[in-house]
Amino acid sequence: MMKTFKPAVAAAAVSLAMLSQAAVSAEQFFPIPSFRVGPYGANGQSFYGGFIDYLNYVNMKEKGVNGVQMAYEECETEYNTAKGIECYERLKGKAADSAGPIHVMSTGISYALVDKSAQDKLPLTMMGYGRTDAVDGSVFPYAFPLVTTYQMQASAIIKFLRDKNAGSLEGKKIVYLYHDSAYGKEAIVALQAEASLNKFNLVLIPVAHPGNEQGAQWLKIRQEKPDFVVFWGWGVMNQTALKAAQKVGFPRDKMIGSWWTGSEEDVIPAGDAAKGYMAATWNVSGKKVPVIADIEKVVYGAGKGNLQDKDKIGTILYNRGVSAAVVSVEAIRKAQEKFGKGKPMNGTQVAWGLEHLDMTEARIKALGATDLLPEIKTSCSNHEGSGKVKIQQWDGAKWVPVTGWIEGNKALIHPLFQASAKQYAKEKGITPRDCSKEK
Amino acid sequence: MNFFLEVLVGGLLSGVMYALVALGFVMIYKASGVFNFAQGAMVYLAALSVVGIMEWGAPLWLAVVLAFSIMTAFGIATEKFVLRKLVNQPPIALFMATIGLAFFIEGLAPMIFGSEPRALDLGIVDEPIPWILDNWNMVISKFDLVAAGVGAVLVATLALFFQFTRVGRALRAVADDHQAALSIGIPLQNIWAIVWGVAGFVALVAGMMWGARNGVQFALTFTALKALPVLILGGFTSVPGAIVGGLIIGASEKLAEIYIPPVMEGMFGGNFGGIEGWFPYVLALLFLLVRPEGLFGEKHIDRV
After folding, report:
1. Are strands A255-257 and A278-281 parallel, antiparallel or unpaired?
2. Which of A85, A269, A306, A343 sits at 20 to 30 Å (Cα–Cα) from A164?
3. Interface test with chain B among A34, A236, A263, by most B beta carbons within 10 Å
């Protein structure tokens, strides 16, 4: 009995597998090295929750991109560079024929993957972090520091402060309080260039990782009596700085942070000490953004939301995850227009899509993503595509945008990227592409 | 001079916060000869329990009582399921077990109470005392003074407990030699459960003070990094040593952060700030060369 039963079951299983294979529509695979546990797990949960919710939203609302369903696999990095590389190696095999942009949300991991992803021809996106000289796509064809970079952000913050001071910062003193790591140091070159252009005095004060003790730094700030503190923190360093500023009596509305210091996770633990504090951002918070409201209705309404804690919907980092997914899906759409609608795109084709983004205000509005992104137009020589930020202020309960889009000084900052990229190409023996011949 | 004093006092007060964490290490080491790698994770678990229970609707006092119960239960469970099997094993086996324990807590605690950073309001404002600011132009925070008071009371209580109670003496006997303590009828398992419970209490106090200061979040586990040089200086077995070590580390790292970088920059150029992460370790290493057992640690003598 068993002898006849076994082959029958096997045959049925094979038939079912073949049927289901045929029934499965084409899929665009997203390798997602994410982090949801560890020191920065709370940040990762919001960001990747938003990212994945948008992929599912596209599948549910639009039946994918021209019928191609968005698929993904996550791998936990714990924000650890070694684990990030391990995850990349594990996932890249599945991304050989179809690869969505890879978002690692870590400067350390992205630095480690810049060369590897170029060799594997997989697009590495670094929205608001990572190797910023990759703006020069002639040297970095597969790396995309999209939307805006640390340097352009720093430049935009200086522009904001200058406008606040009747158009001049001459003779003013600005302290740059930063995480003593690659992330914190990236903006120094831009701030030094701005200091010499705008004739203000720049004081650099580093904070050792993890930054949970800043007594000496804030006593030094008290002694320096700066007009403003520009602040580049991460994780516990952010709340500690806000509390320490309160302790020495430095006004929080004269502290302006980077976009990694401007989420709800950064200010709520600091309580009243955070009230009035400002930070840069490229996406607003809240559920008023049409696509965020629709994700809640469509995806969570169907019980398919990625977040366990629904309260995170509409937070800065959740909305940022959605904004990253919007850009990624748009790149796939763009690639399909050139290489074939309704087909999964490989890494090279998606990189082409990322390099030919043209997200106008009208297009962003059509996607329901107004205020989630500035206008983006990328090219071979400009993998950043925008360089604009907004400044937002914490009112004790929520982030409130206090400016429109502010663009950093491109003429001052972009040559810094090009010089650095040229040096990199020389060190690595890379022959840069001729961008004038790229279409 | 005024600025120097401000940095010095600020450093001493920060040192008390380090000592609060170091005390937990001392408790376990004193009673079992084990360096408890999980102490930082216990600080995190304790603080997270308080805010987690408060989110379920409990008032602060009840949350603290329940968090203490959790820490005590955790201590008893650690003895029963981890340490009991390792009696008379080499210290490295016990140390490795505490590493495993640390990862276990770091995974379990956020799974139960959530991982998002949260505020813990103890009702003590972290602002300068106006009278001192007006008369001395020095920033001394109310919160830091309260933390110093809490540290002093904790040290006094623990020192008296170890010195003058039966349990305290039994703890010291167990620390000296497990087998000898067992042979004279000291119940090793009970003693270990008690000491892990007390270490849990110390973690709760440290977690609440650090959590109120910087928010309750995973980074509380990093507080252990600040405690290590304190222990090397103060000695792994001395309760007062943890406080004195904390004061020395706190004051020296703050003074170093302020005064060394300008000298180095004058000599070599560049930027030498951000040294307080590693400076205490260098100080502790130098100290090890002169006095390996720490300021108040027991001198180890082997008779051959």
Report:
1. parallel
2. A269
3. A236
A204 and B271 within 8 Å at the Cβ level: the answer is yes
**Interstrand relation of A388-394 and A399-401 (parallel, antiparallel or unpaired):** antiparallel
Query: What share of chain A in percent tops pLDDT 90?
Result: 87
pLDDT digits (tens, 9 = 90+) for A44-90: 999 999 999 999 999 999 999 999 999 999 999 999 999 999 999 99
Specify the 3-state DSSP secondary structure of A385.
coil
**Is the Cβ of A206 closer than 8 Å to some Cβ of chain B?**
yes
Angle A40-A41-A43 (CA atoms, 0-180°, nearest 5)? 70
Of B113, B98, B60, the closest CA to residue B199 belongs to B98
Amino acid at B215: G
State how far residue B10 is from chain A, nearest Cα, in angstroms.
Answer: 7
pLDDT higher than threshold 60 for residue A250: yes
Q: Residue B300's pLDDT is what?
A: 67
User: Each residue of A332-356: pLDDT tens digit?
Assistant: 999 999 999 999 999 999 999 999 9
Q: CB–CB of A37 and B223 under 8 A?
A: no
Nearest to B231 by CA among B39, B30, B25: B25
H helices of A269-382, in order, are 290-295, 316-339, 347-355, 361-366
A38 — contact with chain B (CB < 8 Å)?
yes
pLDDT digits (tens, 9 = 90+) for B280-298: 999 999 988 988 888 887 7
Phi-psi region of A92 (alpha: psi -120 to 50; beta: other; left: phi over 0): alpha
Instruction: Give me the domains of chain A, ranges plus CATH numbers.
Output: 17-148+285-390+417-430 (3.40.50.2300), 150-281 (3.40.50.2300)
Prediction pTM value: 0.89
| Pairing between β-strand A358-359 and β-strand A376-377 as defined by DSSP bridges | antiparallel
- The 8-class DSSP code of residue A129 comes to S
> CB under 8 Å to A22, separation ≥6 — which residues?
none
